[in-house]
Structures are given as C-alpha cells and as structure tokens.
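Q: Got a minute? One more chain.
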Amino acid sequence: AEPKMSEAMTAERVRARLETVEVPGGGTLAASGRVSEIVVQGDKVFFSITVAPEEVAAWEPVRARASDLVRKLPGCTGVVVTLTAARSAPPAAARPQGGAARARAQAGNAIPNVRSIVAVASGKGGVGKSTTAVNIALGLKAEGLNVALLDADIYGPSIPRLLGLSGKPELVGERTIAPLSKFGIEVMSIGFMVGEETPMVWRGPMVMSAITQMLREVRWGQTDVMVVDMPPGTGDAQLTMAQQVPLAGAVIVSTPQDLALIDARRGVAMFRKVEVPVLGVVENMATFCCPNCGHVTPIFGHGGARAEAEKLGVPFLGEVPLDPLIRERSDAGLPLVVSEPESAPARIYRDIAARLRTEIGRGAAAARPAPRIVFES
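A: Always. Here it is, folded:
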C-alpha cells in the first residue's frame, strides 16, 4: 500500500521506488550501484546517478523516469536528480577544445533564453560577495538589461535574505520549475527549497547535481545577463559552472587585506586555467567613513585589490566602502541599488555594473564554450 501523506519522506522510501526503474543492460536503478547517497531535506529529495560520459544519452531517460516516480511519492514536493559523468582515466584537469569542437560545445551547453552568464566569485568567504552580486545584478537591470540571478552557493544561500524573497518555485510541466521574481529580475536559489536553518551536508556530486538542475531545469525568461553568486573557493561548484555552461566571464570580489588577496589570486588563476575570462576585480570594504567626524579609516587596508588587478592584468571594476547602510539594507532584504539609489554606495554599484557591461561586450570577453573537464571517479 502507498504510504500515507502524513508519513515523512525517507531515503528508504525513495530507494524502494527506484527498485521499479529499469536501467540499460537489465536490472533496476536501486541495484545498479550508480545511485549516490540519497539526501532527504524535509519534503525534498536529492541524489545523483553516476555514469560514464559516453553513457549520458542512454541514461537520461532513466534519470527522467526516476525523477518523475520519486516526485509522485506522497509528501514529496521537490526532487533534484542529475547525471554525474565520471571517468577513471586521466587526472582531473581542464581539457581545452579547439575549432569545431568548441562550436559544438557552445551550442550544446548554452542555456535557452540566456545570452551571457557571469560568475561572481571570491577566493574566500566573508568578503561580501553575495551582497556585491545582488547589487551588480540590480545595477545591470538599471542599465536596461533583462537580468537573472542564480544563487549557486549551495552551502550558504544568501540571496533569498538579501532580496527579502521567499516562497516555493512552481512546477511548470513535468520537470521544469519557474523562477521567482523580485525588483524586476528572475531569481533561483536552493534556499527556496530548504529552510534557512537547514544545514546542507552534501558531498561534491550532490552540489554539482543541484547547480546543474537550477541551470537547466528552470524556465528562464529572455535574459541578457545571468549573474551567478558562486560559493567561495575553487572547488566543485566552480568547476561545474565551467563545465556546464559557456561563461562570459567571472568577477572576483576581495577585501584589500593581504590574506584575502592571496585567495583572490587563486580564484583568478583557477578561472584562467579553465579558460574563463576574468572580467574584473571588485575591492569591497575598501574604507570606512566615520558618520560622526567624517574621518576615513582603511580598516582592512586600501588599494590592495586595485594593485592586484593591475599586477594580474585584469580590469579593476571599482571599490565599495564599508558602509553601515549597505549592511542595514541587506539585512532588511532591500538592496541599496533599489532602496537608496542616490546614495554614494549605490552609485558605486551602478558604476561597477556599467563597467562590467562594457567588459561583457568586448570581443575578448565574449561568451566562450565550456572546456571539457574530466573528474576522477
């Protein structure tokens, strides 16, 4: 008998449903040894299916069938199931493609309706990357562009709070969900699907699965620029983005202090290694102006990110001060660019967005096909 609606979702219930999914060559998905750890977060289910790159076409119907059947379980309101290609051959490395292979990759990896994708990244956490990503996205909107914002920071999704946005995405068709919208931009985040206090205790394949589904199973509207808020560091999420879509480029956010600049340098090197153009560097928390006496103090130093950008040969997009107004509006879900558009920090964000638009439009920063990245199994 089918479990009652009141029963909690469990990995055992999901695995039992996967016993009914047949796989190429015979047998069931549950017994195939290809299913990752099944993660259940409340009424949401997440897992991936490991296949070799040459098996993707044959196993896509299996993935779709598994997703449909699990979604029909009573009490289940969302499923993330993605194929994770792995091969045990050469070491994990980016393998640039050339000529016709690049053109085919670009056509195959593009996201429907999305013209350019820009990753906003940082080498370490705590430098204000998410706040910068939100205000850049709204600055690009103020430039007259159609903008989407994807929160790819799976472990620490901040975009819902920064935009004051909540709710559950609606299912459109069998496997496509509609993004939410705020301040005129489309938004998707894993934070819409799990509670704000729910820890995302996921391994790499689960992170890659979630990002892939948010990229490819969301009904994005006509979009000039999609801004992607990346998690900090240079790990699975960054490599997944480089593998899955043709990025127009990346923006690196850093504070001026030497410790943050070391990690920012690693971020620039990582994107260059996978052939993603670095569109520029933003120096955040550059200076603090005392509201009482007007004295300017470089709490984290000043000018370090600008000097690093010049040293690395990448554009410097601008510096944002350490201003209490930014924190207050961010905590309230009212980004400065829309809530205080004439404030000094908001004008800085808009200037950064204008420079970024110029960099995106340059021939050297045109969207490029994703390099082929092979992961060790």
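A: The radius of gyration is 21 Å.
Q: Perfect, thanks.
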